[in-house]
Amino acid sequence: METIAIQARCVTETRWAGIRRFGTIFRMDIENDFRNPVLVGYNTVLAVLLILIMGSLVGGLFADQSDAFAYYTITFCVFGMLMTCTTAANSFMERDIRRPNLRIIHSPAGAFPIHFSKTLASATFGYICHVGLLLVVCPLLGMSLGESPLLFVALMAPVELASAALGTFFCCVFRCEETTNMLLSTVVELMSVLGGTFFSLDGMGDIIAGLSAASPVRWLDDAFFRLAFDGDAALVMPVFLGAVAVAALFVAGSCLLFKTEDYL
Questions:
Q1: pLDDT tens-digit profile of 176-205?
Q2: Amino acid 165: pLDDT
Q3: Which parts of 175-227 fold into alpha helices (H)?
Q4: How many other C-beta atoms lie within 10 A of the C-beta of residue 34?
Q5: What's the rounded mean pLDDT across residues 93-114?
Q6: Residue range of the domain that includes 16
Q7: What is the pTM of this model?
C-alpha cells in the first residue's frame, strides 16, 4: 500500500510540474505577442480606424449613421477574430521565437507545449484585444451589444480559439510562416468579402447572394447580429459547439503533424 501511495504521489507531482512548465511557456508566449507593436496595432488601432472610416463612408448613403457603425463594429470584430490565425502563425514560426522553442523541445516539457501554448496564447491575445476594442468603440459610438453583452463576449472566445488552432495547424502542414500567413490571410479576406464584411452582397443578384450566404463569415456575422440586435440566442450554441469542435480537430491535427526537426 505504501508503494502504491508513493507512486500515486509521484504521478501527481509530475502532472503538477508539467502544468507549471506549460504555464511558464504560455506566459512567455503571450508576453511576446503583447510586445509586438504590429500585432497590437493591427488588432486594435487599425480595427478602430476601419470601423470609423467605413461607417462614415456608408452612413447616410445606404443606412443610418448609427446602423452603419454598428454593422462595421460587428463585422470587423468577426474579421479580426478570424485573422487571429495569422497571429498564431507568427507566434509559432516567427524566426525570433524559434530559438527559445528549441530549448523547450529538449526540456522535460516536450514538444506538445510548443504548438498548444502558441494556440492558446494567440487566442487569449486576440480575445483581449477584441474585447478591448468593443469596450472602446461601443461607448464611443453609442452602440449596444444587446440584452446579453456577456453572452456576446463569451461567444467570441471559442471563435478565437478555433482561428488560432487553424493557424498553428497550417504551420505544421507548410512549416513556413510566410506561406501560412499568405494563404490564410487570402482565404479569410476572400470569405470576408463574400460574407459581407465590407459591404453587403445581397443586392448583387441571386448567384452572388448565394455565394455570400454560403460563406462561414456570413454565418458568424448572423449569429452575432441576431444576438446583439434581436436578442436571439438561437445560433449561440451551434456556433459555440462548432468552434470548439473545429479547435479540437486542428489541435489534434497539430499533434499528429508537428515534428521537432521543423525547428532545426
A1: 778 888 999 999 999 988 888 887 777 677
A2: 95
A3: 177-195, 206-213, 216-225
A4: 13
A5: 62
A6: 2-263
A7: 0.87
E strands, 102-175, in order = none
| C-alpha distance across the termini of the chain, in Å | 46
Decide if 119 contacts 88 (C-beta within 8 A): yes
Of 81, 83, 76, 61, nearest to 198 by C-alpha is: 76
Classify the phi-psi angles of 110: left when phi > 0, otherwise alpha if psi is within -120 to 50, otherwise beta: left
DSSP SS3 for 83: coil
Which of 60-64, 153-157, 176-180, 256-260 shows the highest mean pLDDT? 153-157
pLDDT at 261 over 80: no
Q: Give, as one character, the DSSP assignment of residue 59.
A: B
**Most distant pair of Cα atoms in the chain: their distance:** 79
What is the tally of structural domains in the chain?
Answer: 1
Encode pLDDT of 27-42 as tens digits. Answer: 888 888 898 899 999 9
CA distance 262 to 218: 36
> What are 14's three cell numbers?
509530475
3-state secondary structure of 176: coil
Torsion angle of the four alpha carbons 137, 142, 144, 149, in this order, in degrees rounded to the nearest 10: 50
